[in-house]
Structure formats: structure tokens, C-alpha cells
């Protein structure tokens, strides 16, 4: 069981880091594009920041102890928060 938690942690950590870098690139692409909305770029940066902080917190948990399941939970919460920020930004709030 420990092996599956380790495997899940490393996969989730890699996906989180890759997603954070992609969101940063998307944010800069939107800023450099003259027709993009600045709010979308800011939300992409906020989502990347949330994923980065989640990856940092999960790494610190692994560094101090071998609680891989807890680290997967930390990364999962970061994914959910980033997903909610992205969806709420691009779909907009209906008035």
C-alpha cells in the first residue's frame, strides 16, 4: 500500500508542477496579447500560485515525515482550489 501512495504522490507532484508552469505561461501569453483580459491573466497566476504552494506544502510534509497519503490530500486540495478558480473565472458569475 505504501508503494501506491508513493507512486500517487510523485505523479500528483509532477502534474502539479507542470500545471503551475503551464498556467504561468498562459498568464504571460494573455498579458502579452493585446486582446486578452487582464483578469484572466491574474486568475491564471493565482491558480499557479495555489498549485505551487500546494506542491511546496506537500514536499515539506514528505521532507519531515513519510506521510505520502497526507501529501496526496494536500495536493488534491490544491487541485480542487485551482480548478474552482479557473472554472469560476472563465465561466463567469451569472447576474
Write the layout of secondary structure elements.
Blueprint: H1 2-32, H2 38-64, H3 68-91
Helix pairs in contact: 1-2, 1-3, 2-3
Task: Kindly describe this structure.
Helix 1 (2-32) packs antiparallel against helix 2 and helix 2 packs antiparallel against helix 3 (68-91). The chain is built from three helices and no strands. The protein is 86% helix and 0% strand. It has helices at 2-32, 38-64, 68-91. It has one domain (2-91). It is mainly α. 24% of the residues are buried.
Share of residues in strands: under 5%
Share of helix, binned: over 70%
Give the number of helices: 3
Q: Write down the Rg.
A: 15 Å
Structural class: mainly alpha
The poorly predicted ranges are none
Following the backbone from N to C, one meets helices and strands in this order, namely: HHH
Report how far apart the termini are: 48 Å
**DSSP summary, beta strand count:** 0
How many distinct domains?
1
Amino acid at each position: 500500500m505504501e508503494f501506491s501512495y508513493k507512486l500517487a504522490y510523485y505523479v500528483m507532484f509532477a502534474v502539479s508542477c507542470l500545471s503551475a508552469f503551464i498556467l504561468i505561461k498562459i498568464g504571460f501569453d494573455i498579458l502579452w496579447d493585446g486582446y486578452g483580459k487582464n483578469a484572466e491573466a491574474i486568475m491564471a497566476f493565482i491558480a499557479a500560485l495555489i498549485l505551487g504552494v500546494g506542491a511546496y506544502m506537500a514536499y515539506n510534509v514528505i521532507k519531515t515525515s513519510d506521510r505520502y497519503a497526507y501529501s496526496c490530500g494536500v495536493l488534491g486540495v490544491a487541485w480542487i482550489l485551482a480548478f474552482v478558480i479557473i472554472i469560476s473565472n472563465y465561466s463567469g458569475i451569472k447576474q
